[in-house]
Amino acid sequence: DIDMNTSTRGGLFKGLSRQMAGESLFMTSYTCKSSTGLVTFTTEAPGRILVFELDRGESLICQKDAFMAAQESVELEMHFRKRLGAGLFGGEGFILQKINGPGIVFLELCGDIREYDLAPGEVIKVDPGHIGLYEPTVDYDITTVKGLKNILFSGEGVFLATLKGPGKVWLQSMPIPNLAAKIRQYIPTKS
Q: Residue range 35-47: average pLDDT?
């Protein structure tokens, strides 16, 4: 026996803050009224669900639509990119999701997932849309792809994200815009 309750959880301001971070104004709570119960969730697109148990003071920075579900103690808030270039050309805009512990959180990413544990000063460069989430200790910036030939013929775009350690980064192989573009190729058009 599971009770379901939908509210703005934390008031209208918290709800609006979540909405700006890419989630709903409302949150749904599920409460088990017996000794056992089951609630299931699925991803919105082909991908994986990642489960994190965050301690008090621990946080994750996520793409706008990564949040799926969490214990009531977990807080979801907006995270603003600090650098102008990262906000303008970073694929997700200036506003991301920040997940704050303590508690268990379920996040969804698209496609296959690769986790990297960057050492202090270690740098990886990646297409910005492939960044699913990262720890707040990771420095995120945007750089321009070098070389006119690379820009025109690589098919990868003009900008790359630069992620500098220390900290963990989770990359996704199939961001939603890439999946939509691939599917669009197969949708018949009127001739």
A: 89
